[in-house]
Specification:
eight-stranded mixed sheet, alpha/beta, 5 helices, globular
Length: 179
């Protein structure tokens, strides 16, 4: 396990955070779940795992990226929380979920309440009548003592230990991102 800590740890700065419904929902969800670390607002956008890693000064694998797929069986959202340095092996994921399709920006927004680049693993607000996404957490995140997940906006992130992320999300731990 890598215990590398960020070179630059952005501090919570509530007064400097622009109004963001998604960021506010994630902040509230983390508080409700008694997570000890509030989300951070980055001065630079972190729409990709690489941008987030660069902004935080951490390894790419420490970014817990959220990747949304569309279930062909029931048109529901499947969200995989995966290490930023690994690709999701879709055939392995399909063994768990059944046939999948790509999710476009409108699908992601309607099913999660977040825009691509800021999809958080919690604090969902799906459109009326739609269920929350089904979550899966890739075991590869457990290589690190600390990972960073999106906090509902491309500039928002929050630090979390992988075992706490599993507890917070109740997502099953799977192996869908080979090394």
């Amino acid at each position: 396990m890598n215990d590398a800590s960020p070179n630059v740890v952005p501090k919570p700065v509530p007064d400097a955070v622009p109004s963001s419904e998604g960021f506010a929902r994630v902040t509230a969800a983390l508080q409700a779940l008694a997570h000890s670390e509030p989300p951070r607002w980055l001065t630079a956008s972190a729409r990709t795992a690489q941008e987030a890693a660069d902004a935080l000064g951490v390894e790419l694998g420490q970014i817990a990226k959220s990747v949304v797929f569309r279930s062909k069986a029931d048109d529901s959202a499947i969200l995989v929380i995966a290490p930023g340095d690994r690709r999701i092996h879709e055939p392995s994921l399909k063994q768990l979920t059944g046939p999948l399709a790509r999710a476009d920006a409108d699908f992601v927004k309607a099913r999660t309440g977040f825009s691509i680049g800021g999809v958080s693993p919690l604090g969902f607000a799906p459109a009326a009548g739609l269920p929350e996404p089904r979550l899966y957490l890739d075991r590869g995140l457990f290589r690190f003592a600390l990972v960073w997940a999106a906090a509902g906006h491309p500039n928002g992130v929050f630090p979390v230990r992988p075992d706490d992320l599993a507890r917070l999300t109740q997502a099953p731990i799977v192996e869908v991102c080979p090394p």
